[in-house]
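Section 4.2 – Deliverable D4.2 (structural model, holo form)

The reporting period included a commitment to supply a predicted holo structure for the target in complex with D-aspartic acid. Inputs used:
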Amino acid sequence: MLFHPTRRATLALFGSLFLLAGGVQAQAGKLPNVRILATGGTIAGTGATSTTTVGYTAATVGVQALIQAVPELAKVANVTGEQVFQIASENMGNEHWLQLAKRVNQLLAQPDVDGIVITHGTDTLEETAYFLNLVVKSRKPVVLVGSMRPSTALSADGPINLYNAVQLAGNPAAAGKGVLVAMNDQIHTARDVTKANTTTADTFRAAELGMIGYIQSGKPYFYREPTRKHTVDTEFDVSKLASLPQVDVAYAYANVGAVAVNALVAAGAKGLVHAGVGNGSLPANTKPALVAARAKGVVIVRSSRVGQGIVARNGEANDDQLDFVAGDNLSPQKARILLMLALTKTGDTREIQRMFNTY
Ligand code: DAS
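Output (structure tokens):
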């Protein structure tokens, strides 16, 4: 059962109000063609009861059921759906990203597709969004959306998030802003958004740099533009790639040693992001292992576990002397994505530093 019975009645009431509004809008002009690519997650999740908001099963509801659960979509866009994967997003991998990116680019090249919505688990939604932000070759809107409560829950946030995402993906005002994330009536850029709370509906935030706009009654309101290059302006092309270079993250903390770094290098990492403490500081027990990795040709990016702020080149470490790359303000998990794509183009650390200063 997708909705609790009393929820159906409430939805029917609100639904009719939406249909009325949507109907007026629909008569105003041609509806946009929006394709929904479903990958799984909580938005496709089900729980045992309407009050089960943790301990539910993610990735169980198919894309057609998601669309049918929001009849208001038909009044704001010509929506079609495609089930690309059906996974909880903690299991998202490089091979999923390559498949998804190629499908997105194929669809956006079609004149009959005006925008794309990707339904996705929230755990790695920010990573998939940033990867696509660097490899989608179109200015058309691509909007990622998820939910923090399963579809069966009291006040499930999936339906309204999906409605907002479809409205955004069909709106020309969302074009040219890079890949966007629409959650909780807010619009975020792929580069700056992060999941900031384990369970609450307002979890997606860009703490210091802020969201890019709001969605109110299905209408987007933008207040800023991204400053870093994205989509059609990047140098990355995955169309002919069958795999991505192995890049991992080593996390720093009090008492850390060199075990993780050495193990990741031994396992074949071509790049390593060091999630340092503070301003990307290198603990004395870890630094020799990073230097040795660099000597073997592994590209090292200095990032920080802190979550906000810039890891400045030659700040807490002499990057020029170490031949390391400074990760700017990207989180370690997003620095990993940019380093992976950089390594598909070059191993030159000066070129890679340029990329970290650009994207
Ligand atoms: N496990 C989580 C995921 O798929 C559920 C969710 O929040 O979407 O990311």
